[in-house]
Design a protein that fits this description.
The structure holds 2 protein chains of 2 kinds. In chain A, about 0% of the residues lie in helices and about 55% in strands. Chain A contains no helices and 11 strands. In chain A, the strands form 2 sheets. In chain A, strands 2, 4, 5, 6, 9, 10 and 11 form a 7-stranded mixed β-sheet that branches. In chain A, strands 1-3-8-7 form a 4-stranded antiparallel β-sheet, with no helix packed on it. In chain A, strand 7 and strand 8 form a beta hairpin. By secondary structure, chain B is mainly beta. Helices cover about 0% and strands about 50% of the residues of chain B. In chain B, strands 2, 4, 5, 6, 9, 10 and 11 form a 7-stranded mixed β-sheet that branches. Chain B has a 4-stranded antiparallel β-sheet with strand order 1-3-8-7, with no helix packed on it. In chain B, strand 4 and strand 5 form a beta hairpin. Chain B is globular and about 35 Å long. Chains A and B meet through strand 5 and strand 10 of A and strand 4, strand 5 and strand 10 of B.
Chain lengths: ~120, ~110
């Protein structure tokens, strides 16, 4: 059974960089049918797709965040990571990592981490 | 970018009711649509992929239909555990886009 777990600081100061890691267990990040994805959700609001990374390192980012976000992958530890720089209070949210599986039928976000609340405050 | 519009934003229903939620894309996305359920305080859970395919383990009272720009999620007989927020998600292209969500609560 695939499991994803977010980890990282729960409090980040304004203007600094938010860094989170997603550890994948029960499966390898290095399989070509998967994209590894970050999604966030401010309290009481909807879901926002932030970006994803493919096994070859190719990334796609939300245009709204593209100038501030970076997603990377470390196959040796079966992890992928999110960095969001120059954060403000508007970046306070629960951050989820998820697997985007690709098949002949399309794509689906089939496995999700439990979420990590990150608060931006001084 | 593709935008997804869900309706209604919320609805009130009773156990046993049939519930229908709609999602519209601003351009054709074929059948590249997921439906997800999110219970309070938990991560979203995939219910349906490719517009109408039930994810393994999801009860058969959930069904999805549609293609192109208009999609529907139906719950045939609402159960207590179905009171949650539901999101559509287009998987046709990046950036991915979620609908705004539909909250289903007790009447």
């Amino acid at each position: 059974q695939v499991q994803l777990q977010e980890s990282g600081p729960g409090l980040v100061k304004p203007s600094q960089t938010l860094s989170l890691t997603c550890t994948v267990s029960g499966g390898s990040v290095n399989i070509g049918t998967y994209y590894w994805t970050w999604i966030r959700q401010p309290a009481g609001k909807g879901l926002e797709w932030m970006g994803r990374i493919y096994t070859n390192g190719v990334t796609d980012y939300s245009p709204a965040l593209k100038s501030r976000v970076r997603i990377s992958m470390e196959t040796s530890t079966n992890e992928f990571s999110l960095r969001l720089n120059s954060v403000t209070a508007a970046d306070t949210a629960v951050y989820y990592c998820a697997r985007d599986i690709s098949g002949t039928w399309g794509n689906a976000l089939d496995y999700w981490g439990q979420g990590k609340l990150v608060t931006v405050a001084s | 970018d593709i935008q997804m519009t869900q309706s209604p934003p919320s609805l009130s229903a009773s156990v046993g009711d049939r519930v229908t939620i709609t999602c519209r894309a601003n351009q054709s996305i074929g059948n590249f649509l997921n439906w997800l359920q999110q219970r309070p305080g938990t991560a979203p859970k995939l219910l349906i992929y490719a517009a109408s395919n039930l994810q393994t383990g999801v009860p058969s009272r959930f069904s999805g239909s549609g293609s192109g720009t208009d999609f529907t999620l139906s719950i045939s007989r609402l159960q207590p555990e179905d009171f949650a927020t539901y999101y559509c998600l287009q998987t046709y292209t990046t950036p991915r886009a979620f609908g705004q969500g539909t909250r289903v609560d007790f009447k």
